Amino acid sequence: MSIAGKCYGNSFTSLAIAILIIFQINLCPVDADSMKMATFTSLKSVIANRRIDTDLVVEKMNYRKLNCMSDCLTDVNCESVGYHSNQKRCRLYRVLISGSDGVPENGWKYFSIREDFCPTENFTHNRIADVCYAISPERKPCGEAATICSSLSARLLVVDSQMKQDWARDLCVRQNIEGVHFDVYFEREGSALKLGSSGMDLTYTNWAIGQPDYGQPCIGMEAWHEWRWHDYVRSLEAGIICEIRRP
After folding, report:
1. Hey, which of 83, 99, 227, 236 would disulfide with 169, CB 3.0 to 4.6 Å?
2. Cis peptide before 212 (omega within 30 of 0)
3. Residue 185 lies in domain
4. Which segments cross the bilayer (predicted)?
5. Which residue, of 115, 134, 150, is where some domain finishes?
């Protein structure tokens, strides 16, 4: 073979390899470990054929469904995916989509991220806080709220860092929850906070001015306290966020 023929052959081989690499990248936008860690579940409780425009992270056009879900897995701000098969439109959302949102538009279906330690379709995983959580539509006193979470093999929300505080506050605001109970308690007046599920000390706090009162059995945060903490009587009703932490 001539030198020109060899060069042509090498160029053709290089081009073929380059095309193959690009093709593989497009087919596999996330690594295998990421796909093993999380999967998607259909949000059957969401009303299909509605276009939801709130809490968007990004919208992508002419996108495959697999790539849409893969992009959600690589974006820590993404909790739900909306996909329109006919239009090949991909939408990533920063919240678990609610069926009460959106406007009628045929073709949309919605999915949420599911981790292995999220036990039921009631829960979704947030990768910033690394917890599976479920929101109850009810407002209950703290004792009843704890029972509801326990029935789901979960516990009431625990805020143990500034990051978790910010995430919980933003979640409550987006979901129109005016206040939530915590799974914490005082062992005795003036003592450190204890986690209700384990009895371990909770070192992070974010008390409102003049709080705590001590002597009150329930602890949580509410909008009228600017999302800072306070303790209160058992009869006070508040929202319910149940959580399950990674084992």
Report:
1. 227
2. yes
3. 124-245
4. none
5. 115
